[in-house]
Amino acid sequence: MLTSTDPPFDIAHDGDHFVQFYESDAGLTEDVGVFLLRALNAGGSAIVIATSDHLASLTSWLDARHGAATQRDKRDALILLDAHATLERFMVDGWPDEALFASTVGAVVASASCSGQPLHAFGEMVAVLCEQGLGEAALQLEELWNRLAESYRFSLFCAYPGSAFPGAEHTQLFRHICHAHKHVLPGSPLREAGNKELHLRLALAEQRARSLEDEMNRRRTAEHQRDAVLMNSPVASALLLGDKHTFQLANPRYLDLVSRDDLIGRAYLDAFPHERGGPIAAALEQVSMHGLPIVHEEYRLKDIGDGLSSRVYTLHFEPLRAASGKIDGVILSAVEVTGYVRARETLEKSRADREVLLAELHKANGAKDEFLAMLGHELRNPLAPIVSALELMALRGNDSATRERAIIQRHVDHLVHLVDDLLDVSRIIRGNIELEKQRVEVHEVVMKAVEMTTVLMEQRSHQLHVEVDHTLKCLADPMRIAQVIANLLINAAKYTEAGGEITVSAAGIDAGTMCIRVCDNGIGIAPDVLPRIFDTFYQGRQTIDRAEGGLGIGLALVKNFVKLHGGRVDATSGGPGRGSQFTIVLPRAPSDAMAGDAKTQICISPAAPVVTSPEKPGTRARQRRILLVDDNVDAADALAELLQSYGHSVRTVYDAAAALVEADTFRPAVSVLDIGLPVMDGYELARQLRARSGNWQCVLVALTGYGQKADRERSHAAGFDHHFVKPLRPADLLAVIDRLSADASCEK
User: Fold this and answer.
1) Are residues 472 and 517 in the same domain?
2) Cα gap 448→206, rounded to integer Å
């Protein structure tokens, strides 16, 4: 028989429902063990519904107090149940089901109380529910125990750990739990204290309660201030509490933002079910779970007004923490950035449009350059037969047409010059200009430029003065520098009235630089024209008859060629009617030093134009077999007639296929091939002719509209011996023919 044990407290009588809030498991085990033994020692029963840890500690306590054998004798009177497993039998969706509770726990109580002997029950299922955050469910379970006590007589001991109610926010639940029991038992420290100690503890508890009340008041004040700030915030703000993110507060701006006025007390997803799985719901979950703030950039919300445009906001999610550090809720604020986003999008669109426009302009510019290059090339083709025809007219010795031939020759030369300028400016724009720099005698390139412009000077009866320091040298492309000076002389000649004076001079500036000047007493340059005078295709104001003519590219070429040489060019003028001066500054050759003032001074006075006649036929040493291939029939026939007039044997064909057939039988010593042939171009034709002429010597001459270094290199790679640019000067081709070896001659 179990020995009697004094009760640990005086109110544990049958039918009592009491609660104890404990601080240590050891103290709880002692109190519960004594409570259970009172019923067992009186011949009654005991029910324990506890966690596995507490079940094990109670069993050990009872065994230690009365022995395992005694306990085995009472095992039918002691009922041990796991709290978690028992809860699973009657909890439905987080709430205790009354019918299931009656059929499970109620059935156990009914069976144990049928003997009429004392029945003591200990339960901590309510404590488990509180630990899971289901405080309301715990209160409902307490109510179910009370209803069960109306049908069966038993004493119920409930226990909650004091740590389950750490903060002021748990005060209301704590009060409800206390009211659900008949008695609230003090812990063992208070029960064991004497009167003096008890009074001291009570006084300290009262002081602590007042402190807590004061702290709660301060927190309520802070919460009110926080709520006031949120309500009056200039940005849309809302406060959402709990795991379901229930709206505790939403200021007017937030309500206007979402066009709602029924949010308070509603969970976010209940109010906005369409947001399930969206960015706001995800951010609320993340902040509640991890306690870290989140910023969601550029959240777009359709404008309620038209349903088409959208407003753009930056959403801020800030965690709201309790004193314990637990995340109680989230403060959501929305800052409108519609203006900024639209401005940025407009800027991005403008940039994209600009890129498209630049691409189109680049494409159009490229097409223009290609057109200019093709135009220059195509303009050369009709010049070829004109030049050949002029040569034939001179050979026929019709002196009555001398003046007419001179006019045609002068304008052909002018047209060739224009075409050359047009091609040069196109190459410069495309970056295809290549300079062949060498040490140059400056007076030689000046005289070359003078020679190139003599006809124009004579035509307009200008006096040209040349003053050049013959010791000057520079590192330059002689052809291009001569072209630069010639363009300046031509410009001066065009804009100086007949009989005017033009001076070209060259002198050193210092040990490293030199200058070339072209001055005239012509019509001058207006101040508003000077800044643009070197722009491509720019021309000053002209009369309707365009007496000066030109394309507006000569000075642009001057500027670009000088720049490519590392120099600069400037233009000055006293104004309209006061002449102009162009100054080119170039670096001197590295070893070129100031060598004194030795100058070459020349004055070229107006003279009547001289038309030279070509060399008469029959003065050449040998006759040659010559094959002409050109799809321009006029050009091919005119050149063939000219060569035949010099006694050469000429065959003319107009396509590559016919040329191959003719070459096999004619075995030419010279083949003049146009590059731009249809079907098979001149490069491929040259390669095939070179392969077939193994048994006889054949000089291949390329005839093309392109004369850049790369074009000449391509001709050489294809097997050409010479490269001529249209229009072909017959004298150049005749010189090539005369240099052939004797074994290439025709038998007379």
Assistant:
1) yes
2) 118
Structure tokens at 218: 């301060």
Mind giving me the DSSP string for 638-667?
Answer: HHHHHHHHTT-EEEEESSHHHHHHHHHHH-
Half-sphere exposure of 121 (CA within 13 A, CB side): 26
111 pLDDT exceeds 50?
yes
How does pLDDT run across 33-71, given as a tens digit for each residue? 889 988 888 889 999 999 999 999 999 888 887 654 445
675/592 same-domain check? no
Same domain, 597 and 645: no
242 and 173 within one domain: no
* 370 falls within a domain: no
In a domain, residue 424? The reply is no
**Residue 235: is its pLDDT beyond 60?**
yes
Greatest pairwise CA separation for the chain in angstroms: 163
> What CATH number does residue 736 fall under?
3.40.50.2300
CATH of the domain at 248: 3.30.450.20
> Which element (helix H / strand E) includes 505?
strand 501-508
* Total number of domains in the chain: 4
Q: Which domain holds residue 263?
A: 233-336
Write down the pLDDT at residue 4: 34
The mean pLDDT value for 355-372 works out to: 78
Q: Over 90: is that where the pLDDT of 125 sits?
A: yes
Residue 225 lies in a domain: no
Same domain for 239 and 181: no
Say what the pLDDT of residue 431 is.
Answer: 60
Strand 294-302: give its sheet, edge to edge.
246-250, 236-241, 327-336, 310-321, 294-302
The token pair at 637 is 């026939």
Residue 245: what are its φ and ψ, rounded to 5°? 60, 60
Most confident of 231-235, 254-258, 304-308, 727-731: 254-258
Please check whether residues 483 and 551 belong to one and the same domain. yes
Q: Residue 638: how many CB atoms within 10 A of its CB? A: 21
Pairing state of beta strands 246-250 and 236-241? antiparallel
pLDDT at position 747, please? 40
Per-residue model confidence (pLDDT) at position 65: 77
